[in-house]
Specification:
Number of helices: 6
Largest sheet: none
Helix content: over 70%
Shape: elongated
Structural class: mainly alpha
Strand content: under 5%
Radius of gyration: 17 Å
Length: about 160
C-alpha cells in the first residue's frame, strides 16, 4: 500500500509543477491576503497599496482556486470515490479540507467584485474579508496536517 495520502502524492508528483500549482500559488496568495489584511486592519487605509494588493490577490485567489477545485473534483475525487481508491480516513480528510478552501477563497473573490456584501460598510466588509482569510488558513492547515500523515494510521477497516 502507498504510504502517502493522495494530497501528498499530488504535491510530490511532476516536480516542481504540481507543488507550484496546487500548493505554492494558493499559499502565497493566502499569505499575501493575510499580511495585507493585517495592514488594513491596523491602518484602516482603504486607498493605499496594501488595499490594492489585497483586492487583486483576493479576486485572483478565488478564481484560481475554483479552477483547481473543478479540476481535482473531476479528476481525483470522483474517480477515487467511484473506484474505492481512497487510502483511508486521513486521505479523505486531507483532500476534503484542501478542496473546502474554495468556500472562503471564492467568498473573498465574490466579496471583492461585489456579488456578496454589496450593502456592507467598509468595516463590515473588512471583517467579513478577514473571517474568510482565517477560515482558509484553518482548512488549509488541517489539509496539510492530515495530508502528511501516513494513511495507514487512520485506515478505515471495511
Amino acid at each position: 500500500m502507498n504510504n502517502m495520502t493522495h494530497y501528498m502524492e499530488l504535491l510530490a508528483t511532476n516536480q516542481p509543477w504540481n507543488l507550484l500549482i496546487f500548493m505554492a500559488i494558493p499559499v502565497i496568495a493566502a499569505e499575501t491576503l493575510a499580511i495585507t489584511e493585517l495592514m488594513l486592519l491596523f491602518s484602516r487605509n482603504m486607498s493605499g497599496m496594501a488595499r490594492k494588493i489585497n483586492k487583486v490577490t483576493g479576486i485572483f485567489a478565488g478564481f484560481y482556486f475554483l479552477s483547481i477545485f473543478i479540476y481535482l473534483f473531476a479528476n481525483a475525487v470522483v474517480p477515487l470515490t467511484v473506484s474505492g481508491g481512497w487510502r483511508g480516513f486521513a486521505d479523505v480528510i486531507a483532500v476534503g479540507f484542501y478542496l473546502s478552501g474554495i468556500v472562503p477563497l471564492l467568498g473573498i473573490s465574490l466579496l471583492e467584485i461585489g456579488v456578496i456584501g454589496r450593502k456592507k460598510n467598509e468595516i463590515a466588509h473588512l471583517k467579513l474579508h478577514a473571517i474568510f482569510v482565517g477560515i482558509f488558513l484553518v482548512v488549509a492547515h488541517i489539509a496539510m496536517i492530515f495530508g502528511m500523515l501516513n494513511p495507514e494510521m487512520l485506515k478505515m477497516s471495511m
